[in-house]
Known about the structure:
Elements: H1 17-31, H2 35-40, H3 45-66, H4 75-89, H5 96-107, H6 112-127, H7 134-156, H8 177-194, H9 196-201, H10 209-214, H11 219-223, H12 229-250, H13 258-280, H14 294-310
Helix pairs in contact: 1-3, 1-5, 3-5, 3-6, 3-7, 4-6, 6-7, 7-8, 8-12, 8-13, 12-13, 13-14
Amino acid sequence: MLQLPDSPSCMKKLASVEDSYELCRQITAKYAKTFYPGTLLMKEAKRRRAMWAIYAWCRRTDELVDGPAAAITTLETLDRWEQHLESVFAGHPLEDYDVALVDALQNFPLEIQPFRDMIAGQRMDLCWSRYKTFEELHLYCYRVAGTVGLMSTAVMGVDTTRDTAAWNQDKEPYIPTDEAIALGIASQLTNILRDVGEDARRGRIYIPLEDLAKFNYTEQDLFNGVVDDRWRELVRFQIRRTREIYAKAEKGISYLAPSARLPVWSALILYSQILDRIERNQYDVFRQRAYVPNLQKLCSLPTALLRAQVL
């Protein structure tokens, strides 16, 4: 059960800053198999640890709706979690994991709104199990994943030396906000395609119903795990759209601080390779989980490094 900010539990002794960051690192390493390797490529420990603190908060938020206690989560639960968030941003951690996030807030210009928007995305998960249009799904993806792009950009920073010409001296550095959001949305769309079977077993369909209708594929077909030409064409369409959003995200990486480009390129390449795996599995996401093997992840690093240096 979540504790309200004025709960007596806030008087308990919490973890030290170092121990809290270690807890955040552990949860990131355990659950973020694609995201975590990218954080290890960050040169500055302060930025790397802040990313773990952000991931731990996002994971805990997601667990409210998709975790073991999801059955007892209500809109009121999420309201209390938002109060918890406000306490953290006020500098008052309530749980061990919060200590690291409070420290990160002191080091980086993180704003509360993306965190609030993510909670709004969890509210959508409580109330919706279908999305009629891509516009509805796009809003959901922004809230649960595009927000992570905004949080991450605040930690990674931007390149303040990119425009050094005299006529650009008075200009503010370009902040690739739209591109950061695009990377989050593309990653979430990738997760949706990878997890179609798992979501179906929970009675959820994230692929827009208008897209199902476009390819004459029914909800019952999806629940039955039917893989035929209709399904393959439907998934090809979803993959094309997702890759277009990845392409938009790529355009913003060169505006990030140089030390941030390698981990972001790495994360983008690894996530997009999940789409390659879906294709290799003949679009059967019901019986085969698409994942990128560790060896392939390692082999992708030179490509990420090259792009980080020249693009």
